[in-house]
Amino acid sequence: MEKMCKTMIQVEDVNCFSIDWGGGSRTFYSQAVANIRVVGAEVATFINILENIFSHPLSMVHLIGHSLGAHTAGEVGKRKPGIRLISGLDPAGPLFEGTPAEVRLDLTDAVLVQVIHTNAADFIPYLGLGIKQSSGHLDFYLNGGKFMPGCPEIIINLSLDIDKVFEGLVETAACHHSRSRRYYTDSILHPDGYIGFPSPSYSEFQKGTAFPCPTGGCPLMGHYVDTYAGITSNSQRFYLNTGETESYARWRYKVSLKITGSTSLTVNFQVALFGTNGNTKQYKIYSGPITSGSTYTAFIDVEINVGTLTKVTFVWKRNLINLFPTYLGAKSVMVQYGKDGTKSTFCGEETTGENTLQTLNLC
After folding, report:
1. How many angstroms from the chain centroid is the CA of residue 55?
2. How confident is the model at residue 167, as a pLDDT?
3. Which entry of 117, 177, 190, 223 is annotated as an active-site residue?
4. What is the separation, in whole angstroms, between the first and last Cα of the chain?
5. pTM
6. Is 201 a catalytic residue?
7. 192 catalytic, yes or no?
8. Is 267 in contact with 319 (CB distance < 8 Å)?
9. How far apart are CA 60 and CA 73, in angstroms?
């Protein structure tokens, strides 16, 4: 959390306190679960001091907690109604999943509660350490909420003894679980790189459900979540993808590409986006048999906010060996930005050979 505080004060003038409760958390897991009540009471006492001696209002208090710390923040909120914001970073799942709201983080614990899910997999057999159920006003399931890109594959766990599992916490699971902290820290510097899209499931999100953002906009997961005006009294689910390495921020686009040229081919083709802020790497749009005149669509999560789009490039490659000269081209490419639905259309006239870059400019 120290890195998070240091990053926070780069962008705003705040007091950031990091709570060290290692004496209560580095023990048997079941005991650590019980200890969050005490820690929550102590933090609530500290807030009382800020409130009564320094006149610091609850409307300016933001609690951020990871794993058991997320439920600890919930304990504080239960003792201090009116706290502005709680951010639960992959709240612990074992011994909390399916329990009453009184004993875990819940949306009633603050005016706004956001929950970031990164390891919401089954504890048996995947050693999922995060809670699966929605627990806040806004619940963000990153990359589906179970397993994070860039982390090692989860080692199957068959033990039913929670204390023994946590005595030798498997690093693979810890990577997925702790990613929520890294994502939140990164969101401080890249606010529009963590846009959550409302969708009934991750599979529907991948298909493009709820793309682009609705008229009221989408929430920004992480440090700027309180800019969202669509809070309700019920939990809402949002989905987004991240990168494998820092910076994890990604910007989502829909790309629709119309092919011209040779037919009856099996190929794959890619595009890169260019804008006023820079350009992306090449992203695969389609792989398989193609027909001239047909349009192929994909959703891509790119590694840079390119700004205002200026051009795109197109390149293709055969999937199967073909000895005859073949030429393909992108007749048009429509690119739509997920945040505001802005569309840009690029036109091309030429066809190119395999592995030859084609540039398309605004129509």
Report:
1. 36
2. 47
3. 177
4. 48
5. 0.93
6. no
7. no
8. yes
9. 15
